[in-house]
Specification:
The chain is α+β, with helices and mostly antiparallel strands and 248 residues long. The chain is built from three helices and 14 strands. The protein has two domains: 55 residues, no CATH class; 135 residues, Immunoglobulin-like (Sandwich), CATH 2.60.40. A hairpin with a 5-residue loop joins strand 10 and strand 11. The radius of gyration is 22 Å and the shape is globular.
């Protein structure tokens, strides 16, 4: 990377930044008032004259998640190789759009374990009412009124009923389950409609992952669309899978 070859747009939204002693590293420190959803474009230019000559990244604020270190690998290529990669990337992007559309349809009517958690068909999976043991973070934007965990070999889900004391409606955008060691599982989210002010609403999160992949009790974090309000629930546990279910 060339010296003084780093640009930020818009300028003035970072507390500090520095190019590392190694030519390939950049340290970025956002300001304390950096907002969820706020975006700063970082562009770096390379000094070796090969293609690509530059690379751009977006620093995006998030209410619940963050990355301390991001590694990017660059392999210079001739122009014809880059053209082939562009064609392949466009085809992959089209496939991703098709997969996204299919997943959105599936999320409207959650299937498998998430659908079971929604309908509470307890004879299909093992479930446990864990609300009495859940720890509620004092900064939670919504109040968890009921919490139930579900498990099936290779699958897990959590069903949360939330009340909204705020003045604005709330819809979950993402969720993650994290254990005390720092290991985490990203969860799919299903919510039929936004939870209006003063109302109750149901949120179901789940993953095609075995619960023993984490060392629970765990912490469940949910965050909203385009906003800072989050819900954090500690001491999330899952029931044991019966031996007869494991053998099926």
């Amino acid at each position: 990377m060339a010296p003084r070859a780093v640009e930020f747009q818009p300028a003035g939204r970072l507390a500090d930044w520095a190019q590392g002693q190694e030519a390939w590293s950049v340290l970025v420190i956002p300001k304390e008032n950096y907002l969820p959803g706020e975006r700063v474009k970082i562009t770096v230019r390379f000094a070796d004259g090969a293609a690509p000559a530059s690379a751009s990244f977006w620093l995006v604020g998030h209410a619940a998640r963050g990355a301390r270190r991001v590694e990017v690998f660059r392999q210079p290529h001739p122009a014809d190789a880059l053209k082939r990669e562009v064609i392949e990337a466009q085809a992959e992007a089209r496939q991703c759009q098709e997969d996204k559309a299919r997943l959105l349809v599936e999320l409207k009517e959650p299937g498998r374990l998430m659908g079971t958690a929604l309908l509470e068909r307890k004879h299909m999976v093992v479930s446990d009412d864990i609300w009495m043991h859940v720890k509620h973070h004092p900064a939670n934007a919504l109040r968890a009124e009921t919490v139930r965990s579900y498990i099936h070999p290779g699958r897990l889900a959590v069903r949360v009923e939330l009340s909204n004391p705020g003045a604005e409606s709330w819809r979950a955008e993402g969720a993650v389950l994290k254990d005390p060691t720092g290991a985490e599982i990203a969860l799919s989210v299903w919510q039929e409609s936004a939870i209006d002010s003063g109302m109750l609403g149901l949120v179901v999160v789940g993953a095609e992952k075995p619960a023993d992949q984490l060392s629970c009790p765990c912490t469940l974090k949910l965050w909203e669309e385009q906003g800072p309000r989050t819900v954090t629930l500690g001491n999330i546990t899952f029931p044991a899978v019966p031996q007869e279910a494991e053998s099926k």
